[in-house]
User: Fold these one by one.
Assistant:
Number 1:
Amino acid sequence: MPQNMITAIPIPGIPHVRPGDDLPRLILAAASEARIEFRSNDVLVVCQKVVSKAEGAVVALRDVAPSPFAERIGRKMGKDPRVVEVILRESTRIVRMDGGLIICETGPGWVCANAGVDSSNSLGPDTVVLLPRDADASAEAIRKVVERERDVSVGVIITDTFGRPWREGLTEVALGVAGIEPLLDLRGRRDLNGHELLHTTMAIADDVACAAGLVMLKDSGIAAAIIRGAPVTAGPGGGWRFVRPRESDLFR
Amino acid sequence: MPQNMITAIPIPGIPHVRPGDDLPRLILAAASEARIEFRSNDVLVVCQKVVSKAEGAVVALRDVAPSPFAERIGRKMGKDPRVVEVILRESTRIVRMDGGLIICETGPGWVCANAGVDSSNSLGPDTVVLLPRDADASAEAIRKVVERERDVSVGVIITDTFGRPWREGLTEVALGVAGIEPLLDLRGRRDLNGHELLHTTMAIADDVACAAGLVMLKDSGIAAAIIRGAPVTAGPGGGWRFVRPRESDLFR
């Protein structure tokens, strides 16, 4: 077997997370219980749902008074108007609103359905979970605890599941990134013919997120995983770097 | 360690591939040489570049006479007009043409830069490689040989590296898929609260492609990898199923 394998190791046993829970400690305890150790250069991948719940980024729908616009859109789309209201409050721009879908810009510039507002794996009926308020800060907070408690340098990625234009199905994306470079710039490196690679900047944290997604399916109860052996380099992180600047975005 | 880990195993030693080469045999020989065995439910991921080269989907630019339109676009964008001509010949639709980029629809409905026409890792200077003519057929041909020669049921995915709207960086996508279901429909399954999942169809073959991409970077010389342990189910394959139908695509 070659040495340069990559492994995705699910961390089972993280309990239902509630606002105020100390998520880094829950993750470390679950890893210990499962006898999973952290090694340097591991990337710890954590789904945004547990991050948001621990941070209290949760809304009880009984507290939401929908605006007339949210009422109308809700009726038209067959959605709960209170959920539409939360989606609108989370949005900085509506990118498309058609075919029963609301594609929003939210956070630092993420584009996704419903501004990431989701009722699955929430705190119970009539609650919805928002995206983390600052996913890079969330990732960095987890990274610091793991580094301090386990004395290893790790990367941390907070992930969510987004759709995309043109292609069916959802894939994982990196929202928050800490401790590693989110993008891997291969420009200047050479291909097998010695030809310089001109346009190849890999979304390496997204690829890592997708690898972890394979062990963190929504119905699996797995909220975190370790990716070991990925070609990541230490760095300051910053999931916001995935947000394509307005001027180079042909699909706004 | 939990049993349900996923591993990405690079297959080193596949030689430079040329038109007419028997790619499945080259892959099997390289795997044998590296003492990598195939197991049932493995997914063999192969980058499109070697598939296209083996199948002769390669163009020598000296044979290309650019049209007046290709000449003008090439001048305007600072691209070789002969490359532009090949891109146009590969395209069924130009989705966007701006900022030095030509985003095209090609193949069964893939949307990507330059219709997938690429000069990196090609046969040498002044040649470009096209996408496989029928990536599902390419995947199925490889799958049949692996199954016959190794007596195991495997999935095969032919991958390429695409950009995407809104997010910086490239990720891997599955072009051709054989032996497994490309999409994993979680609808009807239940989340941790017993709440039914309504809208979750995962692009599982794309997630597998991304996991493999981590061991198949463009400058690595690795053209194939095995993903072991992924939550794939046997099926007829069909990468074409990723193509979002026109009527449900908000971003044409």
Note: Chain B has two domains: 7-57+132-244, 59-128.
Number 2:
Amino acid sequence: MPINLGELAQRFDCELIGDPGVHIETLGTLANAGSNALSFLASPAYKKQLPSTKAAAVVLRTDDASDAPCAALISNDPYACYARMAAVICPPTAYEPGVHASAAVASSADVANSAHIAANAVVEDNAFIGANTYVGPGAVVGPGCVVGDDCRILANVTLVRAVTTGDRCIFHSGSVIGADGFGNAMTSDGWLKVPQIGGVRIGSDVEIGSSTTVDCGAIDDTVIEDGVRLDNQIQIAHNVHIGEHTAMATGVAVAGSAHIGKRCMMAGMVGIAGHIEICDDVTVLGKAMVSKSIRQPGAYASMFPIEDARSWNRRVASFRRLDKLIGRVSELEKKNK
Amino acid sequence: MPINLGELAQRFDCELIGDPGVHIETLGTLANAGSNALSFLASPAYKKQLPSTKAAAVVLRTDDASDAPCAALISNDPYACYARMAAVICPPTAYEPGVHASAAVASSADVANSAHIAANAVVEDNAFIGANTYVGPGAVVGPGCVVGDDCRILANVTLVRAVTTGDRCIFHSGSVIGADGFGNAMTSDGWLKVPQIGGVRIGSDVEIGSSTTVDCGAIDDTVIEDGVRLDNQIQIAHNVHIGEHTAMATGVAVAGSAHIGKRCMMAGMVGIAGHIEICDDVTVLGKAMVSKSIRQPGAYASMFPIEDARSWNRRVASFRRLDKLIGRVSELEKKNK
Amino acid sequence: MPINLGELAQRFDCELIGDPGVHIETLGTLANAGSNALSFLASPAYKKQLPSTKAAAVVLRTDDASDAPCAALISNDPYACYARMAAVICPPTAYEPGVHASAAVASSADVANSAHIAANAVVEDNAFIGANTYVGPGAVVGPGCVVGDDCRILANVTLVRAVTTGDRCIFHSGSVIGADGFGNAMTSDGWLKVPQIGGVRIGSDVEIGSSTTVDCGAIDDTVIEDGVRLDNQIQIAHNVHIGEHTAMATGVAVAGSAHIGKRCMMAGMVGIAGHIEICDDVTVLGKAMVSKSIRQPGAYASMFPIEDARSWNRRVASFRRLDKLIGRVSELEKKNK
């Protein structure tokens, strides 16, 4: 939606340095923006691209304004400010209300008139779809699921059963919410399946990435609180509890009944053991393994960065000599007493 | 299905301490069970919740019975006993036989009369669907697949082609079985695809989690034996062989032609290299990397647990000084001879 | 497609030792091939299976020819040679042109007459499907996607939006291309979604595995160049750039804006941090973490292989004493000066 700089500055309460009449029609990176695009400068790494940008305007901090070769919108938090403006300039697609002829909606389902059910989507028995919610092509909303207002369930998402969501949630393609948890009892005849009868309770403003899986609870529900952000390829096992505004990057796996606090940040490929607690405001760095509860806010790690393969192999060999080395040092200490 | 305690005790051969006439209608955790619920106590970690439970009855070991504020069903293996009772109290959904009007079943496919093919499911050429098997909404059973009796292929599962299963298998949503393996030959013009013509042979009582992928064999089949349990987000490459009753937790990746024994347990995020053998009864702990064959039953590991990021960084720095440290100690030893 | 050895030898310019009239009808491994099958010997590990093979013919190197109990096709690169012959003997399924009655194709979409759109597939507004391209059952080609000629989009694949591909690309089941990147700005009210308006640009001859996810760019496009091969369960974040003929094994995760060169090989479960550069011809070994740019071609690693759990735990304990050990050695050195 085209908008001019004066309106943007006023609406988002920014100082504008430049012509308020300039029209903004799209978004652009500093390096590649066209003359009708809004860009932003948040990270110092991109500062060198500012002087040569072709953007119509750049959202940036006061200190950077003098280097802008174009209009500048001043903000203390340029990334968030840009995000808000971007949502006005390039709003999410709007969908016509209605159910596509090829969609299959159970007669016992309750779909808001303003909802959009796309081609070959399926809404099963006793499911509820809220106002303005979009159910994409091939998506399945299983029996008894309750989806709030203004949600987006993208193509080929599966809400298996007993999933309840708040409003404004987004489920990306291929995500699977509410499948059976991995509950097996060992017997002399092999594994015995333990019935998984809990559901998944999801707050409002939650976004869940592609191919991310969130299992239903074994008995009580799996819980994801308001504002949680999960990237792609994440696994949330049965009865996990994730506190408000916690974010997880790709490939994180959380084992059963782990309880994770608010405003935590898990970097990519972190593993979290079952039945542990992580307090609020914990950051875990990439590829680390959390095998015990964390009771102090702060940053945690357990990852070795790469080296060239030959030196790495030497290091691993040295590591295997460490036990003996400790003995050798003790021996020397005795001699030197 | 409601049942009273007397019937439960008799059917599963348990001692009952309490009123056999009490009706059980659902399941509950010790902490949250209602007065019509059956609960269980298996792990000592939950023992403290027993005295205050509101459950109608608890499955537990003799030693714990005196702390139960309600009826008790005595078992040496309370978790397995609970699982069996739970399957009676909350049986899996039963489906009416038939093919939904929106499903597409190829004329050459052979679908048992008692099978249920849900909305927008697809059964392709020459596929066979056994008695009482459920094919969920949006699921695809590809050409030449043979699915046994009493299986559950949940919503949006894909059996790509040439997948054969035994009876009572469960495939959770988003799992993909029988896609091409990753076979590429390097040439001077880049990678050349190697045709993948094998299938996937799956035994009975196998359960495969959401978004788990099992590739077809390059020439011979990929094989998963009876009773195997795979959690979500697992990758099984072409020509892997997994022995009976082996279980793998989330995020395990098994490379091509690995041969894994019976009753193995792989914890979350374990990696298993290609073309290796793992004998029966091996347990691999979380995040470990199996790069060589394992020929002795037992537990294996290679993971570092987290520490606070600052101490971890110091440790990594020390690790990099280890090579030199070994030299320094040798030097000291010379001096101290 | 049956073919005789003489034709194979001529077509692929191989020396044939044996009867050119022998008919080949299928493919087989050395161990299990039948008498109408072509097999190959590329890796020395399988050399011991050659003398007892029942294959009709084996593709192998000159040096191995004398051990073949059957016809031999001589090649310097038997694996690539076999791959080319295999594609003739077992060509990919051919599909009849046409749109299945249950597929939903938007009126604004442009589908080549020679394309095949399978049951319950969905092609959305303004999408373009090239000549001879196959869109499998349940697959969704989202608005504005442009798919080249001779591509295969398998069952339940999702091209979300704004995905452009070259020719001869293969997308395996469950892969999701073009979903929103993980763009979130922290605010005092929690995470704010940053609109993701870029697309995904994919070259020709690219193959993408099951459940692999490739996100659209935040503003500019995510780019995958010609000949790239991605295995299953891989995550490619927004604005990643992958150079020609790079291959990645299962479970690799690449964070946002990483730029990866040509002909790189990433083994399974490698993590690659955001905003870094990896030059051409880099190999990263399994489970390693690339947290900084790599500017020299070569092999890199950071993984510890398993040991039995008891010794591993001892090693971790020793590792934690390393800091102090360094101090103890310094102390000894002072005494021994």
Note: The CA atoms of residues 175 and 211 of chain B lie 4 Å apart.
